[in-house]
Amino acid sequence: MRSSSQPALKRQKLNPADAPNPVVFVATKDTRALRKALSHLENAARRAAGLDGVKVKSVLPLRPLGAPLLPAPPVHPASTSEPIVLED
After folding, report:
1. CA–CA separation, 71 vs 69, rounded Å?
2. 30 pLDDT more than 80
3. Which of 10, 13, 14, 87 could tie 6 with a disulfide, CB 3.0–4.6 Å?
């Protein structure tokens, strides 16, 4: 086994070309637990997201009859009951 003369933090440094975004993700115990909690389908989709031309077979749950396709947007109360008129 070969030992490295560089400290552990130095070995983990990313190449700027590989990570152009200044934000670097570091996994914690909580994020690892969340990743392990993903379902098989979610894991397959996550793996296939980085691969071109990979077919992912998925079975979508059936929606109940009469359910809307998209949820209704939230209704925000108006600050005034009068109409707003914009004049040029």
Report:
1. 7
2. yes
3. 10
